[in-house]
């Protein structure tokens, strides 16, 4: 039984990048990306990290426990389904997200022009206004060219009963 009014969650995800694959971040397919994620699912490192952040806020483990990458049923899975399932778990425990801060580390392509679209997409999936999803981008300064990484913090609030 959780009693705190507010709880903080933190999540991370990383995927190796390869040519000839799509790159999806926050439910947005990135146009003109030379590389895409190698993953069991669609490899959306933003949605995976958001889902892990939600779960960690209530000590509910991580998405790998609910969606094992050894299960063929999850092959090429749309990560929006993973996030929806995670949100359902959080709501069943009586909490809802308040705001999200996420950082994507990716060298190419530049994501700045897609900031509003990614923020809007993640907000919509979480049932939040766009103003409650902060999105930052960083390069690795050339240290990890074939790699995407996302780090996310989320604030959860107890739903009044
Ligand atoms: N894929 C990316 C990575 C970064 N940006 C923007 O570039 C600026 C500088 O990033 P540094 O890692 O060199 O500090 C910053 O304003 C990022 O928003 C980007 O648009 N796309
Ligand atoms: C999403 C799952 C399941 O398809 O696989 P991946 O797409 O490889 O992603 P990852 O973030 O490495 O781990 C969670 C997995 O269980």
Automatic annotation (TrEMBL):
<feature type="binding site">
    <location>
        <begin position="67"/>
        <end position="71"/>
    </location>
    <ligand>
        <name>4-CDP-2-C-methyl-D-erythritol 2-phosphate</name>
    </ligand>
</feature>
<feature type="binding site">
    <location>
        <begin position="13"/>
        <end position="15"/>
    </location>
    <ligand>
        <name>4-CDP-2-C-methyl-D-erythritol 2-phosphate</name>
    </ligand>
</feature>
<feature type="domain" description="2-C-methyl-D-erythritol 2,4-cyclodiphosphate synthase">
    <location>
        <begin position="7"/>
        <end position="146"/>
    </location>
</feature>
<feature type="binding site">
    <location>
        <position position="15"/>
    </location>
    <ligand>
        <name>a divalent metal cation</name>
    </ligand>
</feature>
<dbReference type="InterPro" id="IPR020555">
    <property type="entry name" value="MECDP_synthase_CS"/>
</dbReference>
<feature type="binding site">
    <location>
        <position position="13"/>
    </location>
    <ligand>
        <name>a divalent metal cation</name>
    </ligand>
</feature>
<feature type="binding site">
    <location>
        <position position="48"/>
    </location>
    <ligand>
        <name>a divalent metal cation</name>
    </ligand>
</feature>
<feature type="binding site">
    <location>
        <begin position="62"/>
        <end position="64"/>
    </location>
    <ligand>
        <name>4-CDP-2-C-methyl-D-erythritol 2-phosphate</name>
    </ligand>
</feature>
<dbReference type="GO" id="GO:0019288">
    <property type="term" value="P:isopentenyl diphosphate biosynthetic process, methylerythritol 4-phosphate pathway"/>
</dbReference>
<dbReference type="InterPro" id="IPR036571">
    <property type="entry name" value="MECDP_synthase_sf"/>
</dbReference>
<dbReference type="GO" id="GO:0046872">
    <property type="term" value="F:metal ion binding"/>
</dbReference>
<keyword id="KW-0479">Metal-binding</keyword>
<comment type="subunit">
    <text>Homotrimer.</text>
</comment>
<comment type="similarity">
    <text>Belongs to the IspF family.</text>
</comment>
<feature type="site" description="Transition state stabilizer">
    <location>
        <position position="139"/>
    </location>
</feature>
<dbReference type="InterPro" id="IPR003526">
    <property type="entry name" value="MECDP_synthase"/>
</dbReference>
<comment type="pathway">
    <text>Isoprenoid biosynthesis; isopentenyl diphosphate biosynthesis via DXP pathway; isopentenyl diphosphate from 1-deoxy-D-xylulose 5-phosphate: step 4/6.</text>
</comment>
<dbReference type="GO" id="GO:0008685">
    <property type="term" value="F:2-C-methyl-D-erythritol 2,4-cyclodiphosphate synthase activity"/>
</dbReference>
<dbReference type="GO" id="GO:0016114">
    <property type="term" value="P:terpenoid biosynthetic process"/>
</dbReference>
<dbReference type="Pfam" id="PF02542">
    <property type="entry name" value="YgbB"/>
</dbReference>
<feature type="binding site">
    <location>
        <begin position="40"/>
        <end position="41"/>
    </location>
    <ligand>
        <name>4-CDP-2-C-methyl-D-erythritol 2-phosphate</name>
    </ligand>
</feature>
<keyword id="KW-0414">Isoprene biosynthesis</keyword>
<keyword id="KW-0456">Lyase</keyword>
<protein>
    <recommendedName>
        <fullName>2-C-methyl-D-erythritol 2,4-cyclodiphosphate synthase</fullName>
        <ecNumber>4.6.1.12</ecNumber>
    </recommendedName>
</protein>
<feature type="site" description="Transition state stabilizer">
    <location>
        <position position="40"/>
    </location>
</feature>
<comment type="function">
    <text>Involved in the biosynthesis of isopentenyl diphosphate (IPP) and dimethylallyl diphosphate (DMAPP), two major building blocks of isoprenoid compounds. Catalyzes the conversion of 4-diphosphocytidyl-2-C-methyl-D-erythritol 2-phosphate (CDP-ME2P) to 2-C-methyl-D-erythritol 2,4-cyclodiphosphate (ME-CPP) with a corresponding release of cytidine 5-monophosphate (CMP).</text>
</comment>
